[in-house]
Design goal:
Helix content: over 70%
Strand content: under 5%
Largest sheet: none
Structural class: mainly alpha
Shape: elongated
Number of strands: 0
Length: about 220
């Protein structure tokens, strides 16, 4: 969990305040996190799914950011390397639900940054010289802490849901969740073509039906 918090914090800072080196991209963050827990193959599949879905969630205009970075790090830590595909599918669904509320914290930190810049500008107009460098480092540290906290919270929630489901999910539900896991990247592909919602639903339906009929084992 400590490694996940450090990775989530670094990726959270990279997403908004430092570097922006693609570490925060869910395709990269998921692979690194899964590699740490010993599930690189599942991490690549998770990163592919989250990366394609996140393309439709770009925060443009009034669209609020979704924290796909923190959940990408949290999912492998929550389920572990030995988890069957249905648990990965359930974890992915929970992660997508958590992405929006966790993204609210990104807006909160950005609002603090904007407030600081306004205060710094007012100080400059009064002839004062505020330490912009110190302020930047402080905001970067705040982004790091936000990313670390979001990752740990997501991992705890996802892990709890998977643990509860392990005792009460029947075979049909496991089959369906396994289909969700294997079909997840297919959901995002139609969204690359058009941004209409029915394309998203069509991609999900076709992908899930194909995997279901294929009779894959989970």
């Amino acid at each position: 969990m400590i490694a996940a918090a450090l990775l989530g914090g670094a990726a959270g800072a990279d997403r908004t305040a430092v570097g922006q080196t693609m570490l925060a991209h869910p395709a990269i963050a998921a692979v690194l996190s899964a590699w740490v827990v010993g599930a690189p193959r599942e991490g690549m599949w998770l990163g592919l799914a989250l990366g394609l879905i996140a393309l439709a969630w770009l925060p443009m205009g009034e669209e609020r950011p979704r924290d796909t970075t923190s959940v990408a790090v949290a999912v492998p830590v929550a389920v572990g390397a030995s988890a069957p595909p249905w648990q990965w599918g359930l974890a992915l669904l929970v992660a997508l639900l958590l992405a929006r509320p966790l993204g609210l914290a990104i807006d909160g930190v950005r609002a603090l940054a904007l407030r600081y810049l306004r205060r710094a500008r007012a100080a400059c107009e009064r002839g004062e010289t505020p330490s912009l460098e110190r302020g930047h480092f402080g905001l970067a540290a705040l982004h790091f802490l936000r990313g670390a906290a979001a990752t740990v919270l997501a991992a705890v929630v996802i892990g709890a849901v998977v643990t509860v489901a392990e005792r009460g999910v029947d075979e049909a539900a496991r089959y369906s969740l396994g289909a969700v896991w294997w079909a997840a990247p297919l959901v995002g592909i139609p969204r690359l073509l058009r941004r209409r919602r029915w394309w998203w639903a069509a991609g999900a339906a076709v992908g899930a039906a194909g995997v279901w009929l294929g009779g894959a084992r989970w």
